[in-house]
TrEMBL record:
It comes from Yoonia rosea. Residues 6-240 form the ABC transporter domain. Pfam families: ABC_tran. Keywords: ATP-binding, Nucleotide-binding, Transport. It comes from the Bacteria. SUPFAM superfamilies: P-loop containing nucleoside triphosphate hydrolases (SSF52540). PROSITE patterns: ABC_TRANSPORTER_1 (PS00211), ABC_TRANSPORTER_2 (PS50893). This is ABC-2 type transport system ATP-binding protein. The keyword Transport applies. GO terms for molecular function: ATP binding; ATP hydrolysis activity. InterPro entries: AAA+_ATPase, ABC_transporter-like_ATP-bd, ABC_transporter-like_CS, ABC_transporter_ATP-binding, P-loop_NTPase.
């Protein structure tokens, strides 16, 4: 067994032409290894190929070319074992309205061949906060509760890998916090988590490693810390002791006066020392009441990489 939960090599997917739509190459030779025990972010703009990749992992889409190994099992040679190693929480809450949460989890476990005496229905209901709704019809659940049930269904067969496809899109803060508490708990217990999200601050906070996909290709794959380090840009935020205008600045520094009176100075830390900015401010006769720095955020990295492709 390798140290990777998932190994993808040369993965391609081309959708055949239909009607007036030409053939579309959704994945163009993806190479990607996802370490065991990590929380891994899979990011990219709409239409980048993320959903196609996830559906291939789930066994819902047949790849055109390449190899996929899930928990050491080749998807072509050992389809049953590879599928049993992964649980998918989809974006859309497709649930049978006539099943209760307990019944839905039991049926899902049965589909995976989990014997009745090994099912963890009560434990999962407790984890997702639906114990008191165990016997309520799914059609009576709120949107947030249905999202929780989707997470529960992805866990019934105790997978080693959990894929969360846009799990917090359109949910309230309480549900989002509950979900991330559960994700951290599962990860602490050894589960590998793969997360797709449009909320880049979530990926920045949660993920150990990140891959960014654009136009069916992995354009970058690195640790979150290293990705953030790729941007040399920093911002110095100065609160003047009294109202002040921006001083004259060299081309290497970009300044802005905010509505609240603060002055911001954006610069490349590799070529411009912060002392230079402070000296410029002091030489302009501005007394500094407070000063702080802001590091680059993942959103800036994401935009800088995808806008050039």
């Amino acid at each position: 067994m390798t140290d990777n939960a998932i190994e993808i090599h040369g993965l391609k997917k081309t959708y055949a032409a239909t009607g007036r739509s030409p053939a579309k190459e959704a994945l163009k030779g993806i190479d990607l290894d996802i370490p065991r025990g990590s929380i891994f972010g899979l990011l990219g703009p709409n239409g980048a190929g993320k959903s196609t990749l996830i559906n291939i992992l789930a066994g819902l889409v047949v790849k055109t070319e390449g190899t996929v190994k899930i928990w050491g099992f080749d998807q072509d040679k050992n389809p049953r074992q590879s599928r049993a190693a992964i649980g998918i929480m989809p974006q859309e809450p497709h649930l049978d309205p006539f099943f209760t949460p307990a019944g839905s989890l039991d049926v899902q476990a049965g589909l995976y061949g989990v014997p009745k005496n090994q099912r963890k229905t009560a434990e999962i209901l407790e984890l997702i906060g639906l114990t008191d709704k165990a016997d309520a019809y799914a059609r009576s659940l709120s949107g947030g509760m249905r999202r929780r049930l989707l997470l529960g269904k992805a866990l019934v067969h105790s997978p080693q890998i959990l894929v969360l496809d846009e799990p917090t899109a359109g949910v309230d803060i309480e549900l989002r916090n509950m979900l991330w508490q559960n994700v951290r708990k599962l990860n602490d217990e050894g589960m590998t988590i793969i997360l797709t999200t449009h909320y880049l601050e979530e990926a920045e906070e949660m993920c150990d490693d990140i891959a960014i996909i654009n136009h069916g290709e992995v354009i970058v794959r690195d640790s979150t810390a290293n990705l953030l380090g790729r941007l040399d840009s920093k911002t110095l935020v100065i609160t003047p002791d009294s109202p002040a205008d921006l001083p004259a600045l060299p081309d290497t520094i970009t300044g802005q006066k905010l509505a609240n009176g603060m002055l911001t100075f954006t610069y490349q830390s590799g070529t411009t020392p912060a002392d230079q900015i402070l000296n410029i401010v002091r030489d302009a006769g501005i007394t500094i009441k407070d000063v702080k720095t802001q590091e680059a955020h993942l959103e800036e990295v994401f935009l800088s990489l995808t806008s050039s492709k």
